[in-house]
Design brief:
382 residues, alpha/beta, 3-stranded parallel beta sheet, 14 helices, 14% strand, globular
């Protein structure tokens, strides 16, 4: 189960599809026996987090089955493949499978490690645009029965990487240092032209407010029709549009200058997601929340790391602060605790130095009751 469609595979589908190499492209989720017994030239497998190792392994094994055992036809990429490339390459049964680390931001032949000597398909393609820069192919999503909760949205990046080097985070290995990406306008306009307008704008940036072009990015979002209060009309009905910086924004930057949240309030952001990873961030976090309130941003979601170097008391105090801020400022903050797991661990077994199984299970029970969030209602919290 996952919330967002596989952006990497959607871009690869664009490269191979009717507007690219005009190949037959088939998208599956899980093990679909329909693809067996056919001769595929290439099979791409994406990976999510390392703790999904068992499911990732099953997917690669199935891909090899669909490739009739010809491992050179199978390509594996995504988060776990990038963070644990050596582990994938060391698996004897996957010998010959190409495990791609990071972004497909060079020519297709280079990014996919194609061998011209073996005359592999498109191994001479050094001139096409980087697959990373292509417009995602939304049509492949219709090939599966699964309904992605977030689908009616433009998925794009205004920046890549991050200025931080947090020990708990995989972004520095996945994407490197902070840098601006291609214009989001070109991606949005391209999606409009090929697949029709989308209601929402989902930006996958890891630290949007750290961009030197932050104000220009906000202006671009407004120009694309996502100003505060924006709507879209479909079949005679108006729907609210929304912008979602789904990886959250950095309180340590937001607190420095009210400009950041003044600009943010000009777009239809819903909700504003702010990270609050440890108690040492209490002061910048509180100031960022107060700036948000000042500029009319009252619907907030809050990522809270736990099971790292924190204690259960630390997590409690951070959630308690949200309750106090809700009551003090008449706003609505939902706490979204996120359990730390080392980015190369193959299961969810990690127990932080100040935690134990009972504590972790207790938090899990609360989150199961509320589908992952801790309500901002004081009575529930108490």
């Amino acid at each position: 189960k996952n919330k967002y469609p596989p952006l990497g595979l959607m871009k690869i589908a664009q490269y191979h599809g009717p507007r690219g190499k005009n190949d037959l492209v088939k998208f599956i989720k899980g093990d679909d026996p329909e693809v067996l017994g056919k001769s595929w030239d290439r099979i791409y497998v994406t990976s999510l987090f390392s703790f999904e190792w068992k499911k990732i392994s099953d997917s690669i094994d199935f891909a090899l089955k669909a490739a009739n055992g010809i491992s050179s036809k199978v390509f594996v990429g995504g988060i776990a493949a990038s963070l644990m490339q050596e582990e994938f390459l060391a698996e004897p049964r996957w010998r010959g499978v190409r495990v791609i680390r990071g972004l497909l931001d060079k020519s297709p032949a280079e990014s996919l490690q194609l061998d011209e000597f073996s005359e592999e398909l498109y191994s001479d393609d050094y001139d096409s645009p980087a697959i990373e820069d292509l417009i995602p192919d939304y049509s492949i999503i219709d090939q599966v029965d699964y309904s992605y909760p977030v689908y009616d949205a433009y998925f794009t990046y205004a920046s890549r990487g991050c200025v931080r080097k947090c020990k708990f985070c995989g972004v520095p290995k996945l994407e490197g240092d902070q840098r601006d990406a291609a214009s989001i306008t070109s991606i949005v306009r391209g999606i409009d032209e090929l697949y029709g307008p989308k209601k929402d704008l989902t930006l996958m940036d890891n630290n949007i407010v750290a961009s030197a072009n932050y104000k220009e990015i906000i202006a671009e979002i407004i120009d694309l029709g996502f100003h505060a209060g924006a709507t879209i009309t479909r079949n005679g009905h108006k729907y609210k549009r929304r912008v979602d910086f789904n990886q959250g924004v950095d309180a340590r930057i937001l607190c420095k200058d009210p400009m950041y949240l003044r600009e943010m309030a000009k777009i239809c952001i819903d909700p504003l997601r702010i990270a609050f990873d440890h108690a040492g961030m209490t002061k910048p976090y509180s100031q960022a929340i107060r700036y948000a309130k000042e500029f009319g941003l009252t619907k907030l979601s809050n990522y809270m790391l736990y099971n790292f170097h924190d204690t259960p008391e630390d997590l409690y105090q951070r959630m308690r602060l949200n309750i106090d801020l809700n009551e003090d400022l008449d706003i609505r903050i939902f706490s979204f605790p996120m359990r730390y797991q080392p980015v190369t661990l193959k299961d969810r077994s990690h127990i932080g130095e100040h935690w134990n199984r009972y504590y972790l299970r207790s938090v899990q029970l609360i989150l199961q009751a509320t589908h992952g969030i801790v309500s901002g209602a004081p009575n529930f919290f108490k």
